[in-house]
Structure prediction request, 213 residues.
Amino acid sequence: MAKQKWDKTYCLKADIAKCFHSVDHETLKNILRKTIRCQRTLLLIDEIIDSTNGHKGIPIGNLTSQLFANVYLNELDHFAKEKLKVRFYVRYLDDFILLYHDKTIVQGWRKEIEQFLREQLMLQINIKTSVFPITQGVDFVGYRTWATHKLLRKRSIIGMKKKLKKLAMLYRENSATLEDIKRVLASWLGHAQHADSYNVVKRVLKNFVLCKT
Prediction:
């Protein structure tokens, strides 16, 4: 049933080009002033925002930057949901997708979103942005998702194999402990459990052997 329902659905998958470097200071300040009234708080926020040279960009690594980026792109969320009336829209940081059964409408939404970002937020979407049928699978937030199942990204699997190989070597040289290895495994297995990954996990762990020199 799920396959039949979603077979003719199209996805717009996009991300903001150089998002953190492109946030306009004055636009961000104006957005924050819609809800924050305390002048002392605003002065502190302005100081943090202006700590980056020029009139664009928020400091990467600063604890407030991820929050500021989300507040900034919340404007896009409201535009997509309230103006365009997109029912199936999801954003994670500067990556977002939207779904609809009519490709022409999705392409039209793309143009309107590009215009909104350019004119209201001084942002651009990545040139790799594309519209495609979801039967190809949607690569988003660490998984490749279809209507009927979800898989881990290939680079996640390859990366974990390399990491385990390195950990085995470090353990053999007494440079890594079992606790170190358990933490890495727990993190990846926690991620993998949200996908159809039983066989993949078995293959990844099959040749993982620990021994001391």
